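Sample A.
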Amino acid sequence: MSPRQIGVTEVALRDAHQSLMATRMAMEDMVGACEDIDNAGYWSVECWGGATFDACIRFLNEDPWKRLRTFRELMPNSRLQMLLRGQNLLGYRHYEDMVVDKFVEKSKENGMDVFRVFDALNDPRNLERAMSAVKQVGGHAQGTICYTTSPLHTVEGYIEQAGRLLNMGADSIALKDMAALLKPQPAYDIIRGIKDTYGEETQINVHCHSTTGVTMVTLLKAIEAGADVVDTAISSMSLGPGHNPTESFAEMLEGTGFETGLDMHRLINIRDHFKQVRPKYAEFESKTLVDTNIFLSQIPGGMLSNMEGQLRAQGAADRMDEVMLEVPVVRKDAGYPPLVTPSSQIVGTQAVFNVLMGRYKVLTAEFADLMLGYYGECIGERNPDLIRQAEAQARKEPITVRPADLLEPEWDQLRAEAESLPGFDGTDEDVLTNALFPGVAPGFFTTRDEGPKNVGKTQEQLAREKAVASGQANAVREPITYKITVGGRSQTVKVEPGE
């Protein structure tokens, strides 16, 4: 009997560098690997969405739509995949339905194939429009379950959630484990339950981070349960708060009755490419290798660094342990949301406020909105005292309807706003860029013509910085030669740096 083929989604071009180095990788450091990635035999290549859109215009002076078109051109044989935050698209608020339709339409037009659609609260109402929009343009709609644990989250609940996504027309189901909380047995039970309930033909993709150290075994158990595709990152862009290594995963399956069919020669080329690139971004690298505290706090890596930065800014870096203990309290009061963008930032920042100012002495505006239902419904009941406090502070009523139902049509207004900006190019893509990041896009439009910036550092720059830091700058700086004339007589002198 021939081995069962397991698809692999390579995440090196998006989630790997988002998780390891704050999404700072420049496009020029990715293009050299694209031919090998395109021909290695992956099920899909994740290369867009998530935080890449924001990072492109905020840090890299790069047009994210052009990045997508470039990937499409360089990888003509691949399914390109993105991460889409449902009604939030790639921004941090809900957008009106026509904006969601337009964004999905333009993403497909520019080259996107697979849309992994998720909602931070797992509220299916926040997924419906985006899923429908993907189906409308002929894309692959991947309905996503954000995995978390709490007294209210059960295997049966996750199986029911998969059914709701399939009823929306999902072409596949993604089990998304952003904090590396998914242990082997629950993974087996959820995936087997979905297959038993909705049929073996239901495609299930499994996305795990590696932060807690248990998830390579999780991937194997998921496959034994019937998972069809798993996400991995090429080894030179793996581990820590990132993902399990692609080559290691492929080798692990030897003799198990499963295989990836990936071209190991191509994988080695991809590995070697990013092995050269990764050191350039050392200053952005997460220092986390394995963090088993996440099993208790549920705090994913990006949220951890965010909270550390907030505390440092307040001169309270020594209070991180208190914040770690406060996060589960805030999460329970909010109804046990999964912690993923933007719910992770909302819960984490409120925990910081609680530690610095006293518990719920001040509610952030976002936390008040979360308590009032403006981000959607959570699985648990929200603390009624905090709902009343949020109502008084925000001066608005709690809602139970789908948040986007309260939004007025906004496309025409968004276009008018974009048209008033210097550097606007007249396209719907630019309108969407400004709609998603109105605080950043206007500046980007004015500097776009200067071309992309690479914030990585060459070996020479890194060596020089290291030498300067260790007081050995002269080792990498040449003496400067001057010709000087004194009293009509000329002579040449060399001046050592530092003199």
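Sample B.
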Amino acid sequence: MTHNTPLSPRPLHHPAAGRRRLTTAAQLRAHGVSAAETAERCRPGGPWQQLLPNVVLLHPGPPTSDERLHAVLLYAARERTAGRAAGVPVQPGAQGTPDPVYAEAVITGLAALTLHGFHSAPPLPSLDAVDVLVPRTRRLRSTGCARIVRTAALPAAVQVTGVPVAPVARALADAVAGLADAGDVRRLLTEAVRGGHCEPAAVVRELNRARLLGRPHVVDAVDSLVAEGRAIAEQRLYRMVREHGLPDPVWNVDLRLPGGPHLGGLDAYWPEQAVALELDTRAHRQEDDALWSEYARKREHLERLGITVVHVTPRKLREAPEQQAAVVRTALMAARDREPAAYVVVLPR
């Protein structure tokens, strides 16, 4: 056989073959190309090349970034059975549903962050390897440009430019696991929050799940992340009050009983209506249970004094500010029908 020997007349219907000129050895065999023919065409100087085990690039030049991504997915994905593959759950996205051949394989780490549009993540061509999530039970090893990351449960992938990608928080955790530079970690976490990719709580939850919060440079970056997230949430709160026509509250105050104990700090308070608003910016770290108990005790104490407490999360402020404004407006209007609240002293925090 020569390099110009034609393939089987049966067309290659593999979805990757037409777009990226990639396929698997199994797909080639299914279309009448023997293992010997494939090996011959993949020899040095031949028209094809074996990019990864059982993954064949159908041209001799270097692979593009897109081809490397799809080659990693072809290598890591579970083979189809009976013409179908078990699909990975995918969140709705602009690019539609995932290619079913990529069952049980999801791009993560720095490559995923680049696909999500992170400017602080390196460009795809500069990455030596692409991280890909697979179930822990899969028998795969890292090789070439494919770095296997095992997980007990695959996250619901997001479809980005035709590629199943881990959600930002999970991709961040997988990226941070391989980074030793504190500056790199801080830049990625900060961009996640400033860029509106995800909330700090989701990031810290994934970092905690990956047992990365014991690393000093990660803890320092998380502290900056939480502070950044709170500042952004406060800006959204100010904007919500202004843009939705709510009366101006007093901002960032402490409440005390006259001559009595401290009742707690609040992000906003409407004294005439005795309505308090508190931002929940907890980062879901290990001390959360104790912190949530403190939140609950403060709320119960204030409500016993006749003060209505509105509890708002940064995510709700970002995704549904109009709805949160309606909640506050309802609480303010309902004050007319309540018994007067106990007198409290309002102090700047």
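B remarks: The radius of gyration is 27 Å. The CA atoms of residues 28 and 34 lie 7 Å apart.
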